[in-house]
Amino acid sequence: MRKPKIVILGAGYGGLLTTVRLQKLIGVNEADIVLVNKNDYHYETTWLHEASAGTLHHDKVRYDVSNVIDRSKVDFVQDTVVEINKDEKKVILEKGEVNYDYLVIALGGEPETFGIKGLKEYAFGITNVNSSRQLREHIEYQFATYNMEAEKNDNRLSIVVGGAGFTGIEFLGELTNRIPELCHEYDVDFQKVKITCVEAAPTVLPGFDPELVNYAVSTLERKGVEFLIGTAIKEATPGAILVGKGDEEPYEIKAETVVWAAGVRGNAIIEKSGFEAMRGRVKVNPDLRAPGFDNVFIIGDSSLVINEEINRPYPPTAQIAMQQGELVARNIGALIRNKTDLETFSFDNKGTVCSLGEDDAIGVVFGKKLTGAKASFMKKVVDNRALYMIGGAGLVLKKGKFNVF
Amino acid sequence: MRKPKIVILGAGYGGLLTTVRLQKLIGVNEADIVLVNKNDYHYETTWLHEASAGTLHHDKVRYDVSNVIDRSKVDFVQDTVVEINKDEKKVILEKGEVNYDYLVIALGGEPETFGIKGLKEYAFGITNVNSSRQLREHIEYQFATYNMEAEKNDNRLSIVVGGAGFTGIEFLGELTNRIPELCHEYDVDFQKVKITCVEAAPTVLPGFDPELVNYAVSTLERKGVEFLIGTAIKEATPGAILVGKGDEEPYEIKAETVVWAAGVRGNAIIEKSGFEAMRGRVKVNPDLRAPGFDNVFIIGDSSLVINEEINRPYPPTAQIAMQQGELVARNIGALIRNKTDLETFSFDNKGTVCSLGEDDAIGVVFGKKLTGAKASFMKKVVDNRALYMIGGAGLVLKKGKFNVF
Question: According to the CATH classification, is domain A113-262+350-405 in 3.50.50.100?
Answer without folding.
Answer: yes
